[in-house]
Amino acid sequence: MATQIAEQPGTYRSSPSAVDALKEHLSRHPEEKWVHTHPYDVSRSDIYYEDRWQPIFAEMRAKGPLHWVDESPVGPYWNVVGHKAIGHVEALPELFSSSWEHGGITILNRLDEDELAAQGRERFELPMFIAMDRPKHTGQRRTVAPAFTPAEMKRLEDDIRHRTGELLDSLPRGEVFDWVDKVSIELTTGMLAILFDFPWEDRRLLTFWSDWAGDTEIAMVRDLDEMRQGILREMAAYFQQLWAERANREPGPDLISMMIHSPAMNQMSPQEFMGNLVLLIVGGNDTTRNTMSGIIHGFDKFPDQRKLFEENPDLIPNAVQECIRYQTPLAHMRRTCTEDTELFGQQVKAGDKLVLWYLSANRDAEVFENPDKLDITRENARRHLSFGYGIHRCVGARLAELQLRVLLEEMHARRMRVHVAGDVERVRANFVHGFRKLEVEVTTF
User: Fold this and answer.
1) Domain residue limits, the chain
2) Residue 77 pairs with which residues in a beta bridge?
3) Is 432 helix (H, G, I), strand (E, B) or coil?
4) Where is this region: Disordered (predicted)?
5) Which of 6, 73, 83, 204 could pair with 34 in a Cys bridge, judged by C-beta atoms 3.0 to 4.6 Å apart?
6) Whole-angstrom Cα distance, residue 1 to residue 270?
7) How does pLDDT run across 304-338, given as a tens digit for each residue?
8) Fold of 18-28+41-444
9) How far is Cα 289 from Cα 188, in angstroms, rounded to an integer?
């Protein structure tokens, strides 16, 4: 990669977390809190933070699979809330584009040039292969796909099991601690460090970068968005150093080496480099991290299911799928319609934004009986849409499933029961769906 990224590593390492920065900004500028007036404007992050989104989506599903929101802080958009409708949209990637050039994969607006000029801002795009259409998407996805084959999963499993067991053995007994920090973040950040062959002592930088990249509402605050851009440039500068160190080495199994030796990715622009790093870090970190926390919270909320897990370890593979369905660690993906069309009785126009609410599809009673209950014996749990569907289905799905399965197996081997015993704080965001804090206590069954 011949181009340079101007940001010195270390500049932002003392910055607050993304969530703390947004909280502080809104406390100092309450007038900037975004006004949501439409009853179905589910872009508002408070309904996820307060875990009260379920009845809103249930009401929409009862009335139909698509609903138009004509005004919101993120502009007008279609809510696509039904399981069948989301699968249909995902199966037509030419008609419903993922491309960053049309707005990308999140609910946020893509500002036009006049709006940017009025705000005195420059365009900051992060092209990544999940936000590309064919054929470019195909070549870049194929580059990283070999890191997630069944053979690679078999190669990685012993290491994942060793790290997981070692961590579980280190957890305190008889005291309350934060499961998110000590377990979910540590296991997933360690896995990312291995995939990138990233310096182990700096692995928590991956968590820091993931939070700033995945908290999309930050982009609505100019000062924080500028800080976010600086943090992501710093991330890219760090990775560019790793790229330079490995450019003349023999190809290795790490993701950086795969990109270096790929004709589809070894000449990426700085923005594309940053975008694909964000994709791999958020995709490999926030999603599995939040399901690891969601499993614990779900078992505590449904103790009958925890008992089933304790008595029937053969249920673990299906329990993994059910917990992924129930948690749905990424709430939505966005598509943009490329030509006028009719969709489930609604007239959708070229340029319209469609938001595919995976967390709604995973609670669709037409597909999942009693969908608001965690049921680790659910026969069709694998029909969840947490990994998406079609050409953009999560490339790392096998690795996520492996890490979650090993976690449950190693917990069971130690007869470990985890109780929620303190604060529960959810992510205040409409994209990443998960937990910031989950205070627990470990006992034995």
Assistant:
1) 18-28+41-444
2) 69
3) strand
4) 1-22
5) 73
6) 8
7) 999 999 999 999 999 999 999 999 999 999 999 99
8) Cytochrome p450 (1.10.630)
9) 6
